[in-house]
Amino acid sequence: MARFIVEFETASGVALEPLYTGKLLLALREAVESGAVAHGSRLVALHSGGLQGRRALQERLLALL
């Protein structure tokens, strides 16, 4: 999860946390990679902020940079 969050943030500039939005976006990526969602499909993921859960993971994220 931490590696995915760092990769996503580096590519998009959007901060994630591991409890909700990190899991959501990782699951979406896995769904596309597995073929459950067709490449080229339009997906909407709502990121409502909620970065409080990020504090617990902050040191691990910094170590991956």
Written description of the protein model:
The chain has 65 residues and is mainly alpha-helical. The chain has one domain (2-64). Helices cover 49% and strands 0% of the residues. The protein has helices spanning 2-12, 21-34, 58-64. The radius of gyration is 12 Å and the shape is globular. The relative contact order is 0.23.
Task: Sketch the major β-sheet.
Answer: none
Which structural class matches the secondary elements? mainly alpha
Distance between the termini: 14 Å
Morphology: globular
Q: Count structural domains.
A: 1
Alpha-carbon Rg, integer: 12 Å
Strand content: under 5%
- What is the helix content? 40-55%
How many strands in all? 0
What value does the average pLDDT take?
86
Succession of helices and strands: HHH
Q: pLDDT under 50 segments (min length 5)?
A: none
Number of helices: 3
Which descriptors apply to this entry?
mainly alpha, globular, 3 helices, 65 residues, 49% helix
Blueprint of the fold:
Elements (H helix, E strand, L loop, with lengths): L1 H11 L8 H14 L23 H7 L1
Protein name: D-cysteine desulfhydrase
Organism: Pseudomonas aeruginosa
InterPro entries: TrpB-like_PALP_sf
